Amino acid sequence: MQQYTIEIATSDFLTTKAAVEGGADRIELCANLAEGGTTASYGTVKQCRESFDVQIYPIIRPRGGDFLYTDEEFSIMLQDIRLFKELGCDGIVIGMLNRDGRIDYDRSARLVEAAYPLGVTFHRAFDRCLDPVEAMEQLVQMGCERILTSGQLPTVSEGVEMIAELNRKAAERIIIMPGSGLRKDNIKWLAEKTGCHEFHSSLRGKAPSLMEFIHPGFSGSAESYMNNAIDPEEVRALRAALE
Q1: Topology given in CATH for the domain delimited by 5-242
Q2: Fewest Cβ atoms closer than 10 Å to its Cβ: which of 14, 33, 43, 111?
């Protein structure tokens, strides 16, 4: 029977706790998921590492926006990798491009080397690259263990043909992990269509604040009185849909 891996992108300690409760196999630990995910604080990563017995892969991304980074930002990435290795994380998530849309091979390879022996996922910067097949071969060569992709389109449902092609060409040399718009109602279809066995979802939701005092001037402010949330049952439903 095929064994599947469910990775959940979380945005803080509480959403990580909920994802683990729901049975996530691996956590992509981020801040600012609304920006596509940026590096979580040292304190958040430390608390999650100490609290949860699942694979934890912090994203190494010093800001939102594009994936073209300065030397100073690259230095930040190296420092964060060193810290997260010391905390005992299982891997990291990276993604860097050059101006021409190709993988920033040299600096990405340096990040992989700095992370060793931790695993490395290349995130959806891949979906903005010029030539996905060339990029995949480069990521295989530098030692990445997986690629998170929506098939170079906004969602996995739109990019399913590309995902399937990449998975065939990967030939088990690197894991192709679909993500973006992945839910319980399409995960089984994606597995059958692509042959992939690892899947990524954020399952982003909102929960009302437990604050008793609601300032009348901000009573309609979602930013002030709604928090990021994950329903553990939604995580369980992903696996149930596969099985």
Answers
A1: TIM Barrel (3.20.20)
A2: 43
Compute the distance between CA of residue 114 and CA of residue 9 in angstroms, rounded to an integer.
23
Instruction: Render pLDDT for 193-208 as a digit per residue (tens, 0 to 9).
Output: 999 999 999 999 999 9
Residues 6+ apart with CB under 8 A from 1: none
3-state secondary structure 79-126: HHHHHHHHCCCCEEEECCECCCCCECHHHHHHHHHHHCCCEEEECHHH
In which residue are the tokens 């553990």 written? 232
Among residues 82, 85, 76, 89, which one has the least CA distance to residue 39? 76
Q: Do strands 91-94 and 205-208 pair parallel, antiparallel, or not at all (unpaired)?
A: unpaired
The tokens for 122 are: 């290349």
Question: Token digits for 12?
Answer: 């803080």
Model confidence pTM above 0.90:
yes
Reported as type and span, the H/E element at residue 194 is helix 187-194
156 secondary structure, DSSP code: T
